[in-house]
Design goal:
Elements lengths: L1 H11 L9 H23 L1 H9 L1
Protein name: DUF6537 domain-containing protein
Organism: Xanthomonas perforans
Pfam families: DUF6537
């Protein structure tokens, strides 16, 4: 599905955003985990995204 390709690419790129050392890396890791959770929720329930966009 064409919609899933872009979403899959976003999910696959999450590790690229975890950079730095110490507290900087920890902050990036927390952001990445939140982004991962949001993207995986969209992946698991793509219809919810379309309903929101249509509203």
């Amino acid at each position: 599905d064409a919609d899933n390709v872009g979403l899959a690419a976003q999910i696959a790129s999450i590790p690229e955003h975890i950079r730095g050392y110490g507290h900087v890396k920890h902050a990036h890791l927390q952001e990445a985990r939140a982004r991962e959770a949001a993207l995986l929720a969209q992946w698991r329930n793509p219809k919810a995204l379309h309903v929101v966009q249509a509203a």
